[in-house]
Amino acid sequence: METLTHSSVLSRFGHALSDPTRARILLALREAPAYPSELADLIGVSRQSLSNHLACLRGCGLVVSVPEGRRSRYELADPRLGHALADLLGVVLAVGPAGCRGSAGTGCC
User: Fold this and answer.
1) Residue 47 CB partners (closer than 8 Å, separation 6+)
2) CA distances in angstroms from 91 to 1, 52, 61, listed in the order given
3) N or C: at which end does the chain have fewer Cβ atoms within 10 angstroms?
4) Average pLDDT over every residue of 10-28
5) pLDDT band at 53 (very low <50, low <70, confident <90, very high)
6) Residue 27 forms part of a structural domain
7) Does 105 reside within a domain?
8) Is a pLDDT exceeding 80 seen at residue 75?
9) What is the DSSP letter of 58?
10) What pLDDT is attached to residue 30?
11) Does the residue 23 lie in any domain?
């Protein structure tokens, strides 16, 4: 089995956060585990769209599905992800929009 490098782990996390809907799902799950229907209503997306995003986040190893009878509840795969998201929010808010000086067309900020 291949060992993940630091850069591949960060790339996986960055891919998950690169979509605003996936970022909102992670932020919602940081607050508390939730059922897909609750998440779809909270975020304002269709259940099909939410299902696709949850599949991506599961594939990235960031969320897990916990079976509860005929339903599944979703939660962050590791509580440290919630702390990492909080830390990342704090850093990004401290730097502010002026901190990103990407060139036009680079896809940065």
Assistant:
1) 36, 37, 40
2) 34, 29, 23
3) N
4) 92
5) very high
6) yes
7) no
8) yes
9) H
10) 96
11) yes
Average pLDDT over residues 40-47: 96
Query: Which residue in the block uniquely carries the two structure tokens 């599905």?
Result: 65
Is residue 81 within 8 A of residue 26, CB to CB? The reply is: yes
Using alpha carbons, select from 5, 48, 44, 55 the residue that is nearest to residue 21: 44
Is the CB of residue 61 less than 8 Å from the CB of residue 77? yes
d(CA 109, CA 24): 18
Residue 68: helix, strand or coil by DSSP? strand
Structural domains counted in the chain: 1
* Residue 45, domain extent: 15-84
For tokens 């939730």, name the residue: 34
H or E element that contains 64? strand 63-68
Q: CATH number of the domain at 75, please.
A: 1.10.10.10
1-14 tens-digit pLDDT: 445 688 888 888 88
